[in-house]
Fold this sequence. Notes:
Blueprint: H1 2-15, H2 20-37, H3 46-65, H4 76-83, H5 88-105, H6 110-121, H7 126-133, H8 137-162
Protein name: ECF family DNA-directed RNA polymerase sigma subunit SigM
Keywords: DNA-directed RNA polymerase, Sigma factor, Transcription, Transcription regulation
Domain RNA polymerase sigma-70 region: 1-67
Amino acid sequence: LYREKSRVIFRYLIKIGCPKEDAEDIVQTTFSKAFEHMIHLNVDNPSAWLFRVSINNYYDLCRKQKRYPHAQIDESFFENMYQMGEDGEQIVLKKEHKNEIETVLNQLSPTQSNLLLLKYELDLSYEEISVLLNMKVDTIRTTLYRSRNTFKQKWSEFVERQS
């Protein structure tokens, strides 16, 4: 379970703005507590439970440190472009585009931005997201549809303000 889920949880924590060191600590703490208390817990879906506990631990950390979570897009994407020979101007333009997308994502509700990140950044299926968030697949589909529409609207407004 640890090998299978720890990486996905870690990547998600990074995506929602958790610093790498904190994400590592949160994943480690979550799994150690889970293994410690697994006998006493009656959890139908351990993956969803671990995911939820990790996110709650991150939000607790944010409250303690008076930080606010924000969406992030993976920087390694841009590093890979550089290694593949893209010129500097294209890389700068793509980084600017990434920052613009993050700006718009951060205007959405946490639920909306989280669902969009899970679906399009982590490339999870509706079923996987359903399991992780302990929500019905139809609810995920509907909320993602609305989230995409809200993103499109906010994106249009953002582009209009920029021109």
